[in-house]
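Chapter review. Work through the record for Alcohol dehydrogenase before attempting the end-of-chapter questions.
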Amino acid sequence: MRELTYVARHTVRWREAPDPKLRSGQEAIVAPVAATSCDVDSAILAGHGFLDPPFALGHECVAEVVDIGDAVTSVTPGDLVVVPWSVNCGGCGHCRAGLTAHCTAVPHMAMYGAPIGGDWGGLFSDLVRVPWADAMLVPLPDGLDPVAMASASDNWSLSWRLVAPHLKARPGARVLVVARGSIGLYVCDIARALGAGEVLYVDPDPGHREIARGYGAATAETLEPVPHGFDLAVEATGRVDQLALALRSLAPEGVCESAGNHFRPGELPLLDMYLTGVTLRVARDNVRAHLPDALDLALTGTVAPERVVSHVLDWEQLPEALPEKHLKPVFVRDLAHRETVA
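Structure tokens for Alcohol dehydrogenase:
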């Protein structure tokens, strides 16, 4: 089989690798059918990450189950499933507590798409081994489009977690979104659907702002801090100055969720945060725990994640197209190609 491999700045190539094999009765082999880039992949491809190439890329996809072990009961070959970005067993104390990104059965932060916690390959691969299929794989509900939901492995479900629990606790909350990619746009859509009183989206990209306005958000190219302006702020830029902007805009006891990958150091307004009494959460997401809830929201028809998909491209275009600057490209494989690979 082939796996798409990051080899140098702005450069990816197909690399031949052995076909994955089932190693236990709990495992499954899947073939991605609609895979997309996470917002952080753009930073990695631009050379801003902290991991040296080469390594297999990709950690967001809907896949078709190709083979399963004897002990797997939740999926069967031919099923379409969401493959969570992190590798987790489902049975350890952390997994049972919903901390699936911190599973103790594997090295810390074991994941697809980057050699953190071991080398598990990437989801831009013809075939992928899933070690705990019943714990990890989530069947894609009937009626949901694999292309629209290709990001459910990470960015879409993360966006649900960034706002849904807060809006449940604070109905009608005012929401500030400071972003540069798909996460911020998904947040706008979800926040509107869940009853946010106000959503302001800040992004220098006019195309992104247009999508946000389509979700009912007010938009701005840039913004000065708005003291006591928002109950919830979501930062998804990876820039500490923009995180500081979000923090300075919070109301007393407000909450800031940082979904940006901050590869560079910076300074936070700690005194302002202290005086306002804000809560800041910076975390990689335990997506498997709330993936079903995020998919349930998609099933209601009150959200439109497909509007964030910027391009639908053929699987074979991955080496040329992935390094290009696209908001949210989805790479698809048709049935004939999947049968050939499998």
